[in-house]
Amino acid sequence: MTYVVVGTPGDRRVTMFAAALTRYGLRPPQVVAWPDVLAGQIAIPPGARVRIDSPGEDTATDALLRGPGAPTRVGGGALWHSRLVAGLARMADAASAAGARVLGDVGEIAEMFDKRRTHARLAAAGVPVPAALGPAPVGGYADLRRLMADRGMARVFVKPAHGSSASGVVAFQTNGSLVKATTSVEPAGRELHNSLRVRDYHDETTVAAIVDALAPDGLHVEEWFPKAAVGGRVFDLRVVVVAGRPTHAVVRTSRAPMTNLHLGGARGSLETVMAALGPAGWARALEICARAAACFPRSPAVGVDLMVGASLRRFAVAEVNAFGDLLPGLTGLPGSGAEGLDTYETQVRAYETQVLSCETQVLPCEARTLSGETRTLPNEARTLPYEARTLPCETRALPYVAAGRDDEGETHVRARAGAGRDDEVEAGARA
């Protein structure tokens, strides 16, 4: 079997997947570079299996997706997304023409890169998520303040609709006339740039300018979900789900609201978190991740970002990542069936053992829901826009605590104990 990877040659994702193939006695994959995909220069061998991976941090690819400019700049997400969707469609057409099999669904990838659509899909399926502002779009800072007041929200996360890696994310809170915005964004003239340092802004003029600059590309705003803390550091979980089963998990900790490792976050102890949650709590955490992944039934693997509430009894899904499997050095969870395997080896095993029987070129394609019902995707699905390609997400009706309140019924206006040093607006603080 010939494998093809759409990715960045030499990128860790590509080399780690190639190593996984080699360990299974398979040939290394042919690599189709993202710039070629975006230019429509796609050569796929007949009958190959095609894996789509992240455009990564390749400067040339970024320029093709967002247009020319400094790679550190914030913005251009709407253009990035539209060009990504177009490239994915060209790649799917090329694979179909070659009789190749795409391991995944280009429509679901596109949807996972739209936080508004992902949130709506999860919420509709009963997966616990933070309450979101809307449905009216947030056109700028004035809209943000008005909608927050209308919903009685004092603390929110402002996220670019098509962002990743916390780029442009602002943890925003108010306390009377005081405001505080925690972000890695750094204004530079008329542009915003990402930095590796999370900072606080208390000047409303600066905060308004940041939000107004982010708004044209689309914003997704969620109520702040106070996270649990271990050792004075808030944490969340990245859980990789392969073929519907949670197989790998990593704890991400930080003293700032964002836990991304490149922003000063650090890996935490999974054993400590599992002990704090207890067997029932840990089982529920994995169940929620499986339910979130089930909302994208034609995606063989996703990374679910799961937040654990300060009470250790609430959970909320923050993101579902199409390319969330880059966890170097991490092997499978006990009892997952992936013990001793990294995320890429686990996926190769799934491909080779035909666990993933629903591949995009095999039409009609049946996808089984958690309720056991089988749905058939019509043959016309390949030609429909990506909004129409995905199957409905049907999951068991499982109880969950409604987003927006903790287990004691307290609304998220004040910081909870152990919620981290950046969770409250400090009177008299300076930027």
Main traits of this protein?
five-stranded antiparallel beta sheet, disordered C terminus, alpha+beta, six-stranded antiparallel beta sheet, 431 residues
Give the strand content.
15-25%
- The shape is globular
User: What share of residues is helical?
Assistant: 25-40%
Low-confidence stretches: 355-431
Structural class: alpha+beta
Please tell me the overall pLDDT.
Answer: 84
Q: Separation of termini?
A: 57 Å
What is the H/E string?
A: EHEHEHHEHHHEEEEHEEEEEHEEHEE
Largest sheet: 6 strands, antiparallel
Helix segment count?
10
The oligomerization state is single chain
| Rg for CA atoms | 21 Å
Q: How many E-type strands?
A: 17
Strand and helix layout:
Layout: E1 3-7, H1 12-23, E2 30-33, H2 34-39, E3 49-52, H3 59-66, H4 77-97, E4 101-102, H5 106-112, H6 115-124, H7 141-151, E5 155-160, E6 170-175, E7 178-188, E8 191-201, H8 204-214, E9 219-223, E10 229-230, E11 233-242, E12 245-254, E13 266-267, H9 270-294, E14 301-308, E15 315-321, H10 343-352, E16 365-368, E17 374-377
